[in-house]
Write a structure and sequence with these properties.
Length: 143
């Protein structure tokens, strides 16, 4: 398994993983041009964060996070928009790398994710072990 920053050449593989997740939202119509644009932005801008996990040369996991000005407080917020892995332990490894990146970015005050689908409860325990705190339905990391 290799975990590395995502590149523009990973677009098709990452979007394939994203489309599989989008199927969990049958009432939403997928917007492929917008997804392409967002992927390009997250991979190209240093303020955002993107990782992929490879196995046997194929992208099988991804973590994408977007950084924005915080609407309610000083500094910035960084939200995970896509985090999925088909490789055992890669999801945890990517979340740890994300945590470490957040800790190195003083401009970011809070980061995390707010799952809106049912996930295995082990995911929440993993996030808490890595350092994210549960706040309502969100798992946040304060910096």
């Amino acid at each position: 398994m290799i975990i590395r920053p995502a590149t523009l050449s990973d677009r098709d593989a990452v979007l394939s993983l994203a489309y599989a997740q989008a199927a969990k939202y049958p009432l939403l119509k997928r917007d492929a041009p917008k997804m392409n644009e967002l992927f390009t932005d997250v991979v190209s801008a240093a303020r955002h964060y993107s990782l992929v996990a490879e196995q046997n040369g194929e992208v099988k996991g991804v973590l994408l996070a977007f950084t924005v000005n915080n609407a309610w407080a000083q500094r910035q917020s960084c939200g995970v928009m896509l985090w999925v892995s088909e490789i055992p332990d890669a999801g945890a490894a990517m979340l740890r790398k994300f945590r470490d990146w957040i800790k190195s970015r003083r401009a970011i005050k809070v980061a995390g994710f707010a799952p809106d689908v049912d996930l295995d409860p082990r995911v929440w325990k993993l996030a808490e072990r890595i350092g994210f705190q549960r706040h309502g339905g969100a798992y946040l990391l304060y910096n």
